[in-house]
Amino acid sequence: MTGRRMDRFVRACSVAGIDPVGMAHALKGAPRFVRDWRAYDRLAKEFDVATFPLDPRRLYPDLEDWHEQAGTASGHYFRQDLWAAREIHARQLAEHLDVGSAVDGSILVGTANESIASVSSLHAVDHSGLGRHGDVVDPSALFRGMQTLRRVLTPGRRLYFSVPVRRERLHFNAHRVFAPDTVLSTFEGLERLSFAAVDDAGGLPRTSSLAMRSCSTSSPTCSGSASQIVRRPEAHASPRREARGR
Q: How many CA atoms lie within 13 A of 132 on its CB side?
């Protein structure tokens, strides 16, 4: 089939609501999805990763993303960006680092401990290690990435972080959904300053304790994302050092 005839064929299919290119990518990606699924299951058992287990009833095959370039954001993806931009702008920061790719922490390899004053990672670690974007399948990648974010954060400064929330589960290979408290327990040593919920109905972020309760593990009312501000506590000098400084 010539290029012109192919273009006509694709347009005709589009008019009928059929995406032949997407179908071709899906057929091509199916074997890869199965390989990644088996690899995730094997590695989770090998390294005893009990959180976010595979559940065949919750599979969410995304068979095309490794062919795609970065695109536009909409829905709660867009509104969480507005939330972060507003919060960061209000602090009048000279520098800020956003980690939106290589979320297993590799993008920060070599970065000194406690060296970044302001950092964000929005809807990133929930995809890490699932193979959806061509990354290496690794059930522990999200924890390594979160630990790296914690490691590089300067004492007293802030991390802006968001993931999907509701009842905790894994939709392989698309994303993970977190229970709100899982974030804070993984960021051991950091304290939560703020919690904002963005639901799929299109509302703006709601920042309050009520928003957090609406995103509890048993509530059906929040199925979008939760954005949290966490901070590494200030390092306090020991009494001996304080005495010497007087």
A: 23
> What share of residues in the chain are helix, strand, coil (percent, to 5)?
40, 20, 40
Whether domain 1-246 has CATH 3.40.50: yes
The reported pLDDT for the residue numbered 13 is 66
pLDDT at 244 over 60: no
List, for residues 71-124, the tens digit of each pLDDT value. 555 567 778 888 889 899 999 988 999 987 554 555 787 889 999 999 999 988
**Could you state, in order of their start, the residue ranges of all structural domains in the chain?**
1-246
Radius of gyration of the chain (CA): 21
Which CA distances in Å does 203 have to 78, 82, 207? 11, 12, 12
* 3-state SS class at 173: coil
